[in-house]
């Protein structure tokens, strides 16, 4: 008989939220870095699909002290919120527990959906808590955050396959 921790998962095995959160952290840390954002801006064609995608991956860009402006930049807040909200939504979305066909496919789509929601809510909250906060700006930002989640979320969804539901 397997020892469980009260949630039905065996001890020593993580949930799907762990690998998915790690993938989200890596996406934001690498693709949101100033070096990657500068590279994507200088070396990709925004009118082509590949260039557009490479630039979109830099959306949760962060600076964290690399700029001259004191305090937290809106991009920094957005980058933090994407990772924190991805972890929250990955944990809250039930995936395979309630799926009619439990298994990898439901975990994949649950992880992907969690990242779409994380991108949208990070954009909304980042805009509302930013310096030039307005409801219209926040609503427009949600579209960009959700687009980022749709096109980058498959990576988090694939990483979620590594854990137990």
Can you give keywords for this protein?
single chain; mainly alpha; 165 residues; disordered N terminus; 6 helices
How do you describe this structure in short?
The chain has 165 residues and is mainly α. It has helices at residues 17-31, 34-43, 49-56, 74-92, 104-129, 135-160.
Q: Could you explain how this protein is built, in words?
A:
- The model is unreliable at 1-13 (pLDDT under 50).
- The protein has 165 residues and is mainly alpha-helical.
- It has helices at residues 17-31, 34-43, 49-56, 74-92, 104-129, 135-160.
- The chain has one domain (17-63, 70-160).
- It is globular, with a radius of gyration of 17 Å.
- The two termini are 19 Å apart.
- Keywords: Membrane, Transmembrane, Transmembrane helix.
- The chain crosses the membrane at residues 77-96, 108-129, 141-161.
